[in-house]
């Protein structure tokens, strides 16, 4: 596996198949593709809660696994300071591959607000579909470059992506478990680049139409997340 100096996985393949859309620069600035952890920007919490990808992707970290970095809010914004340790492991079998990403977020300040997510950009083909429990999503029907949020029925709800070349299932394990935890999947597709981003977002129970709201960690308190992506080389059925 190859990473940037900020801990973003550049690509992930099953033999000759690009499961993860390779990381690339956009013509108008910024980048797309790869896989990275997402923590909100340190900013005031005012409704509606701003959709921000956060500082993690632009903050340098250790070049060796596990990656480690500290994020600190500006003094006038009460988001606090967190330590983030992320490790990656992969298992290769015949016609399948599994990527396991474990992340530990620990509050360093008296309190810290977090709303972590996980950002894999999957390569797609025509007629690719996503299944979240009993929700069936045709990627071709998604609006271009516009986030759609789908709430998971439980924290253990997996998501499945089916393409012409492979299927991939993704699940999230969270500890410690709390009654007010919620999981949602933020989904958007860039038709021109032929990829879809499926982002598990973790926080407190949201409003009916909103994203999960930030969690508060007390100093020394931790949230541990394990994301598992399993890819299999199979034909697209449908």
TrEMBL record:
InterPro entries: Gal_mutarotase_sf_dom (IPR011013), GH-type_carb-bd (IPR014718). GO terms for molecular function: carbohydrate binding; catalytic activity. Gene3D superfamilies: 2.70.98.10. GO terms for biological process: carbohydrate metabolic process. This is Aldose epimerase. It comes from Methylomonas denitrificans.
């Amino acid at each position: 596996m190859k990473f940037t100096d900020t801990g973003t996985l550049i690509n992930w393949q099953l033999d000759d198949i690009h499961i993860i859309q390779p990381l690339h620069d956009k013509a108008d600035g910024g980048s797309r593709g790869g896989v990275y952890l997402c923590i909100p920007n340190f900013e005031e919490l005012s409704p509606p809660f701003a959709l921000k990808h956060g500082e993690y992707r632009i903050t340098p970290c250790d070049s060796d696994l596990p990656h480690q970095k500290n994020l600190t809010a500006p003094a006038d914004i009460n988001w606090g300071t967190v330590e983030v340790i992320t490790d990656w492991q992969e298992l290769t079998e015949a016609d399948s591959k599994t990527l396991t990403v474990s992340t530990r977020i620990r509050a360093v300040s008296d309190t810290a607000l977090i709303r972590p997510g996980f950002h894999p950009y999957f390569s797609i083909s025509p007629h690719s579909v996503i299944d979240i429990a009993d929700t069936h999503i045709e990627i071709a029907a998604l609006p271009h470059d516009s986030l759609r949020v789908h709430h998971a029925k439980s924290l253990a709800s997996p998501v499945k992506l089916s393409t012409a070349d492979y299927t991939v299932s993704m699940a999230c394990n969270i500890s410690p478990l709390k009654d007010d935890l919620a999981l949602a999947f933020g989904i958007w597709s860039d038709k021109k680049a032929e990829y879809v981003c499926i982002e598990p977002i973790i926080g407190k129970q949201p409003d009916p139409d909103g994203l999960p709201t930030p969690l508060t960690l007390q100093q020394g308190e931790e949230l541990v997340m394990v994301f598992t992506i399993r890819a299999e080389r199979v034909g697209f059925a449908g």
